[in-house]
């Protein structure tokens, strides 16, 4: 399980989370808190850039569709942001709500009910994929022949 102490870590976790799993875990928090949109969910594209070896000249890798939004909680005024891959507006809204709630007194509740189970389940899925890939691994070896 990864550490979820900084905003960068929980924002990354929420962005990578499967939409269905995030919806299921957010339902465990009870009723959704009141909020006002600062930026309603909108879908657009971003250019992905890369570098060879991490130090080479940047190059355009391709485009990716993202949905972003920003909201402010009615109680306390905490602001939540989200950028998620794809066109899922509900996932972006949920991610922004969790981001905002993590800046309030409900942070521990959100961490325990959403972020930790999400991190655990995603890690289990990653390990299962790695195990399936490892099962197909082929070991090559060379036998030394005594002929010269």
UniProtKB/TrEMBL annotation:
Pfam families: PhnG (PF06754)
Any Gene Ontology biological process: organic phosphonate transport
InterPro entries hit by this protein: Phosphonate_metab_PhnG (IPR009609)
Protein known as: Alpha-D-ribose 1-methylphosphonate 5-triphosphate synthase subunit PhnG
Species name: Rhodovulum steppense
